[in-house]
Amino acid sequence: QVQLVESGGGLVQAGGSLRLSCAASGRTFVSYAIGWIRQAPGKEREFVAAISWSGGNTYYADSVKDRFTISRDNAEHTVYLQMNSLKPEDTAVYYCAARLAAARLLYVKVSDYNYWGQGTQVTVSS
After folding, report:
1. What is the torsion angle, in degrees rounded to the nearest 10, for the CA atoms of residue 21, residue 28, residue 32 and residue 87?
2. pLDDT tens for residues 66-106?
3. Closest by Cα among 10, 22, 30 to 48
4. Cβ atoms of 8 and 19 closer than 8 Å
5. What confidence score (pLDDT) does residue 55 get?
6. Closest residue by Cα to residue 44 from 123, 109, 124
7. Alpha helices by DSSP H, 1-126
8. What is the CA radius of gyration of the chain?
9. Strand partners, 85
10. Higher pLDDT, residue 103 or 28
11. How many whole angstroms separate alpha carbon 50 and alpha carbon 107?
12. 3-class secondary-structure state, position 50
C-alpha cells in the first residue's frame, strides 16, 4: 500500500509556473505507476499526466502537452509535475494517484488508479 501527499499548489498569474510534488510513503513506491489528475469546479476529474515506475515512459493529455512535465525521483519517493505557461483553464484541484504496475506501464484513465492523495489547489488568474 502507498500513501500520497501533494504540495506546491497556489495562486499564479497566467503565463506563470508552478511545480507540484507528490510525496509517497511505503517501501514499494518504486513499483507504482503515478498519475496526476485534476478536477475543476463543477467538472469531472480529468487525466493530466502519467509516468511509469521506471520513469522511462510518460504520457500527457493534449491540453497540457508541451507545457507540463512529469518526472519522478524514486530515491526520494517523490513525483513532480512542472507546470509552465499556465492558463486560467488549468485552475483545479490537482491529485496524484498510484497503481501497482510493471516497470514500463502507465495508466491514462482516472478509474485505473487505486490510491489517491488529498489534492492541492492550483488557481491561475487572468
Report:
1. 0
2. 999 999 999 999 999 999 999 999 999 999 999 998 888 99
3. 22
4. yes
5. 86
6. 109
7. none
8. 13
9. none
10. 103
11. 7
12. strand
| Partners of 22 in beta bridges | 6, 79
> What is the maximum alpha-carbon separation in the chain?
42
Cα–Cα distance for residue pair 67/14, rounded to 1 Å: 13
The position carrying cell 507546470 is 83
Of 71, 80, 91, nearest to 12 (Cα)?
A: 91
Q: Is 42 helix (H, G, I), strand (E, B) or coil?
A: coil
Which cell is 2 given? 502507498
CA dist 80 and 75 (Å) reads 13
CA angle, residues 54, 56, 33, in degrees to nearest 5: 45
C-beta contacts of 87-91 below 8 A and 24+ residues apart: 87/14, 87/124, 88/14, 88/124, 88/125, 88/126, 89/40, 89/63, 89/124, 90/38, 90/64, 90/122, 90/124, 91/40, 91/122, 91/123, 91/124
